[in-house]
């Protein structure tokens, strides 16, 4: 998914000390596209906290009725220095990218795109036909992880995983889509490739239930609540908010109140590198971002009808081209008229 803010702020994500108690992060609404945009709820990055382990971006959307609308329509756009993680609770999304992938993602399946030195992709709700009606609801999360500098220039790739580990403990369901997690004495490990120590999992708790997880004490964790009212370590976490737990715990307890809870657990070793985030780019410096924007802009041209297209030979350039999407690629927003500078979080 693209960050479609017209004036995206640069951010530097840095490791540092964190409080011992549970910290609640409130989401902000961001329109994903034009006047009829679907709205997403973004919890990270924000001024209070930019990273949870290597997790650097969390958009939460839906449930949206897409039975009579265009649904999700994110035109081709570029990325560098990150992995994108597409995870659905309901509906389906069609992914296309510049390495030639075309893949549906459905609930319980993982689409994982590694941008590395540069990739572009599109995401859209599938068209509805008489033979195959579109699922009426779209609901899920879009997540990014930062690649460490040793892997930031890796070759782009795309992976789809439909068979992911699941545990059911007294009616509580845990599905791990990235990394590994110990549940009731058994370690669940995703087959997906990652570049730093982390975990991502969906938790489904019946009303009144409790889940105790053995976790890596070197990890920091976040719990994004999708539905129901959850408690993390006794702290109530309303829907659409994210609770942060600092490193130092070897156990996390998640509990459900009077209604069933669905939540996403994110965690990882604190990321020790400072990285600049702007628009869809994750770099290490102002120059990295400026170069990526220039390379993407050099691949685009204005067409006679006023739309944007690709220059001849774009498929051989840094970000390649995405074929099959009904529309032109996105142009990058204007850069700020000052040098992109680190923006650290309070207390870091």
TrEMBL record:
Residues 39-144 form the Pirin N-terminal domain. InterPro entries: Pirin, Pirin_C_dom, Pirin_N_dom, RmlC-like_jellyroll, RmlC_Cupin_sf. Pfam families: Pirin (PF02678), Pirin_C (PF05726). Residues 117-137, 322-348 are annotated as: Disordered. Residues 202-298 form the Pirin C-terminal domain. Signal peptide: none annotated. Belongs to the pirin family. This is Pirin family protein. It comes from Isoptericola sediminis.
């Amino acid at each position: 998914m693209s960050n479609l803010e017209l004036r995206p702020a640069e951010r530097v994500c840095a490791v540092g000390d964190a409080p011992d108690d549970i910290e609640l992060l409130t989401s902000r609404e961001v329109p994903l596209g034009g006047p009829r945009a679907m709205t997403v709820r973004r919890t990270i990055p924000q001024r209070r906290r930019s990273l949870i382990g290597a997790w650097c971006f969390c958009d939460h959307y839906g449930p949206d009725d897409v039975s009579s609308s265009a649904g999700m329509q994110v035109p081709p756009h570029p990325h560098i220095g990150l992995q994108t993680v597409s995870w659905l609770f309901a509906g389906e999304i069609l992914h296309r990218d510049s390495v030639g992938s075309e893949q549906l993602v459905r609930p319980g399946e993982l689409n994982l795109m590694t941008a590395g030195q540069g990739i572009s992709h599109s995401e859209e709700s599938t068209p509805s036909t008489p033979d195959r009606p579109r699922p009426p609801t779209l609901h899920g999360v879009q997540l990014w992880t930062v690649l460490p500098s040793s892997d930031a220039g890796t070759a782009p790739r795309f992976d789809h995983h439909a068979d992911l580990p699941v545990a059911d403990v007294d009616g509580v369901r845990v599905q791990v889509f990235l990394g590994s997690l110990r549940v009731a004495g058994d370690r669940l490990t995703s087959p997906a490739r990652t570049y730093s120590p982390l975990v991502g999992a969906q938790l489904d708790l019946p009303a009144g239930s409790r889940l105790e997880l053995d976790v890596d004490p070197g990890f920091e964790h976040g719990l994004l609540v999708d539905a129901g009212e959850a408690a993390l370590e006794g702290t109530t976490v309303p829907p659409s908010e994210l609770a942060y737990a600092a490193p130092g715990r070897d156990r996390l307890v998640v509990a459900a109140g009077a209604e069933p809870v669905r939540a996403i657990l994110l965690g990882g070793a604190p990321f020790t590198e400072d990285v600049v985030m702007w628009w869809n780019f994750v770099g290490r410096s102002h120059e990295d971002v400026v170069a990526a924007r220039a390379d993407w802009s050099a691949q685009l041209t204005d067409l006679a009808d006023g739309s944007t297209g690709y220059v001849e030979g774009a498929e051989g350039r840094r970000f390649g081209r995405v074929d099959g999407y009904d529309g032109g690629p996105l142009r990058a927003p204007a850069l700020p008229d000052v040098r992109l500078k680190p923006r650290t979080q309070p207390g870091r």
